[in-house]
Recover the amino acids of this structure.
């Protein structure tokens, strides 16, 4: 068995950065996130902290991404350059809730007969080093959403915090090759995998997707949505939200098209060209977000879109809590006559 002694972390990251773009969790003014290694002055490596404020979603689905440049030539348009960035990336220290979110994005962008070329170009060469999570935070509830905090998946390597070192366990062929490339840095040592601590936050989602299928018009949605400001911070911090918009910038006959994160909580997201909006009210947008997380995605892909990371609970300025909402929904008694 292999271990990475903690005082050799920088050495290992530098080795990985020789051939790959490496992302690590860091504390940074304005919020912790996954950032390129070597880090900028002021950043502090955050491997031993709880989840970062911003998830590693940005590595595979950037907040803003140039798709292609173009030039108009009379009645025709020439595509000059496309933006697929196919280069090896290593993201180091991903928790199980975030690796589960990447698995959900894989379903959306790579399955059901359609592959998003921009996502695929970033995802296929990506190597994920997951970090087993042993001490859930006060807002963590990943186990309730079917996530094992000790078993990040999909990952190529799992590391376990042993105190003075990280236990190192390859989980894929690429993980094995990565392990070999660090052979002179990793040490041999037997270790006992740590166990997970107790979750303070508990919720039961058994039967919830099926129940929600009959609650689309339930008046409870208006009550639950009342405090929501539709600010969208929950969607921007969520590791599995993937709404995006496509825009174009041009000057004269040349320009570029790009896509950027959007949010189903914004009225403009569903505004149609003729002025009609199928989700024009706040409670309709609020309802859509929670039905997508807890019902629609389950029906299509067989898993919940919420991974229990707790970021939306921490960030919501109005104190909206998805766990409390699930409990309220479970309390509703439906008329099944």
């Amino acid at each position: 068995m292999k271990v990475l002694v903690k005082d050799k972390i920088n050495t290992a990251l530098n080795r990985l950065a020789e051939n790959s773009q490496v992302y690590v969790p860091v504390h940074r003014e304005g919020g912790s996130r996954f950032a390129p290694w070597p880090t900028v002055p002021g950043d502090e490596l955050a491997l031993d902290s709880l989840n970062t404020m911003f998830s590693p979603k940005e590595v595979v689905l950037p907040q803003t991404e140039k798709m292609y440049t173009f030039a108009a030539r009379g009645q025709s348009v020439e595509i000059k350059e496309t933006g697929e960035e196919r280069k090896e990336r290593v993201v180091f220290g991903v928790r199980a809730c975030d690796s589960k979110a990447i698995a959900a994005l894989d379903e959306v962008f790579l399955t059901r007969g359609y592959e998003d070329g921009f996502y695929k170009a970033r995802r296929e060469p990506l190597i994920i080093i997951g970090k087993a999570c042993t001490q859930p935070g006060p807002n963590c509830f990943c186990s309730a959403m079917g996530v094992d905090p000790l078993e990040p998946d999909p990952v190529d390597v799992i590391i376990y915090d042993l105190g003075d070192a990280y236990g190192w366990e390859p989980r894929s062929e690429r993980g094995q090759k990565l392990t070999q490339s660090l052979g002179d840095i990793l040490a041999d040592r037997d270790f006992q995998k740590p166990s997970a601590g107790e979750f303070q936050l508990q919720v039961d989602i058994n039967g919830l997707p099926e129940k929600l299928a009959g609650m689309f018009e339930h008046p409870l949605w208006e009550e639950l949505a009342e405090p929501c400001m539709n600010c969208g911070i929950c969607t921007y911090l969520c590791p599995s939200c993937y709404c995006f918009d496509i825009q174009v910038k041009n000057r004269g006959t040349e320009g570029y098209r790009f896509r950027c994160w959007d949010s189903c909580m914004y009225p403009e997201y569903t505004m149609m060209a003729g002025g009609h909006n199928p989700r024009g009210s706040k409670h309709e947008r609020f309802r859509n977000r929670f039905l997508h997380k807890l019902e629609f995605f389950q029906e299509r892909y067989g898993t919940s879109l919420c991974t229990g990371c707790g970021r939306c609970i921490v960030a919501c300025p109005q104190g909206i809590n998805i766990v409390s909402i699930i409990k309220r929904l479970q309390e509703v008694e439906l008329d099944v006559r």
Remarks:
- Residues 228 and 318 are 7 Å apart (CA to CA).
